[in-house]
Specification:
Blueprint: H1 47-64, E1 67-70, E2 72-79, E3 84-89, E4 95-100, E5 105-109, E6 115-119, H2 122-126, E7 131-135, E8 148-153, E9 157-162, E10 167-173, E11 178-183, E12 189-194, E13 199-203, E14 208-213, E15 229-234, E16 241-246, E17 250-255, E18 263-266, E19 275-277, E20 283-287, E21 295-299, E22 305-308, E23 317-323, E24 328-334, E25 338-343, E26 349-354, E27 363-365, E28 396-400, E29 403-409
Antiparallel strand pairs: 1-26, 2-29, 3-4, 4-5, 5-6, 7-8, 8-9, 9-10, 11-12, 12-13, 13-14, 15-16, 16-17, 17-18, 19-20, 20-21, 21-22, 23-24, 24-25, 25-26, 27-28, 28-29
């Protein structure tokens, strides 16, 4: 399912060859790779049997096409009942929630991948719509763990779930397709965004919509979005500032004290959660759904492009990306389907999974774990990074087609 087609609050509120077989001459004594097609010499084989064998071989070949690059450990992969569009770890990282195309949020134990909770109610069942985003309030001393997930739905619903009790605590109904939600890092506030060009700013405690961030009536200024909005990020230091991105090829800078966007970056086409701000607040990361300059770093203060992080091999169009440490970013995309960990010091790929079964629409950073080297791996070949500390990279959970993956670097 295409995330772009399905990604809502109260002002308008009521929501991808077989490669040609490389033939080698057996007369020269050279072997050749297994054929994609089975042998066709059995005279008793029916057309149905042949078709079944071909399908089985195709399925096997496709599965084996997924490759792992770098010192990457596949911790788990799990087939879910429906296509998954988004995922999120809970506050303590012991659960991993997956938002399905059927509107159901399924919560799995992150260690065993056993299904622990199913978040659905009569509202979800009666108004089926894909889950477009899952978040929870950031944990802090002021706002402790709440054991809640908040999901957005393509029909405009924003629903907060207490997952331990399978209970929906509140529902906000927006008259639009809602594509995502982002919490303020320090206050009980959040924004939602969708297909109506607007960003809604809420107080979570009162459930009141306090602001609508939208462009002015002057089309020449472009001081707001002119198409669907797919990404947002609050500034890590300034309480009043946030940035957003979408289909209109801009990253808009907002100050909640100003009526409209105060400035913008152009040439960045967003189709998912492809925007982030560094912990220092000085750099912006953009992961864009476009043919060139997909992954880039920008100076927050000036809006100037610092660097474009060129792909090593696969020039994937990106849906999502964010900083996971000060030295590494993670990104995911399609054409080909991949998830990639990039070293900002070398600007090269530290690790990647390529040719996954589906586009990587979403990922989340989990817990930083002690990196035990698997017994099957030769410890002598493991090098120590001089500049970038890969041991600080957390476990990554991500979605691809119906699968929910977890990976770690070793």
């Amino acid at each position: 399912m295409n995330l772009n087609d399905s990604r809502g609050t109260p002002s308008d509120a009521t929501i991808e060859g077989p490669g040609a077989e490389h033939m080698k001459s057996q007369a020269l004594g050279k072997s050749r790779p297994p054929s994609l097609l089975p042998d066709l010499e059995d005279p008793d084989e029916t057309e149905q049997d042949l078709e079944a064998r071909i399908r089985a071989q195709l399925k096997k070949t496709a599965k084996e096409n997924t490759t792992i690059e770098g010192k990457l450990l596949l911790v788990s992969q799990f087939e879910t009942p429906r296509e998954v569009l988004c995922c999120k770890y809970n506050e303590e990282f012991d659960y991993l929630a997956a938002g399905g195309a059927d509107g159901v949020i399924r919560v799995y134990n992150s260690n065993t991948m056993e299904e622990s909770f199913i978040l659905s109610d009569s509202d979800v069942k009666d108004n089926r719509a894909p889950v477009t985003c899952i978040k929870h309030r950031p944990v802090s001393k002021t706002y402790p763990i709440t054991n809640c997930f908040t999901g957005t739905y393509a029909n405009g619903c924003v629903k907060c779930w207490s997952y331990n009790f399978n209970q929906c605590l509140y529902t906000i109904r927006e008259k639009r397709q809602t594509f995502g939600i982002v919490y303020h890092p320090r206050f009980p506030k959040f924004v939602t965004f969708g297909d109506d060009l607007k960003v809604y700013f809420y107080d979570e405690e009162s459930k009141v919509q306090e602001r609508i961030l939208a462009a002015s009536d002057n089309p020449d200024k472009h001081d707001g979005h002119m198409s669907r909005v797919f990404a947002a990020c609050f500034h890590t230091k300034n309480n009043y500032e946030l940035i957003t991105g979408g289909w209109d090829n801009t990253v808009q800078f907002w100050d909640l004290r100003q009526p409209y966007a105060v400035r913008k970056i152009t040439g960045v086409h967003m189709a998912g959660e492809g925007i982030d701000i560094s912990v220092s607040g000085k750099e912006i990361l953009t992961a864009a759904f476009q043919k060139a300059n997909q992954l880039a770093l920008w100076d927050y203060g000036s809006g100037r492009c610092i660097s474009v992080l060129e792909p090593d091999v696969y020039n994937s169009k990106l849906y999502c990306g964010k900083f996971v440490t000060k030295d590494f970013v993670v990104t995911g995309g399609t054409d080909p389907n991949l998830v990639r960990i990039v070293d900002l010091q070398t600007t090269g790929t530290a690790a990647a999974m390529n040719f996954l079964p589906g586009a990587v629409y979403s990922f989340d950073a989990g817990q930083v774990r002690k990196k035990d080297v698997p017994s099957t791996i030769n410890k002598d070949i493991i090098s120590t990074r001089a500049k970038s500390d890969a041991s600080s990279i957390p476990r990554i959970g991500f979605v691809s087609s119906r699968r929910l993956y977890q990976i770690e670097l070793y």
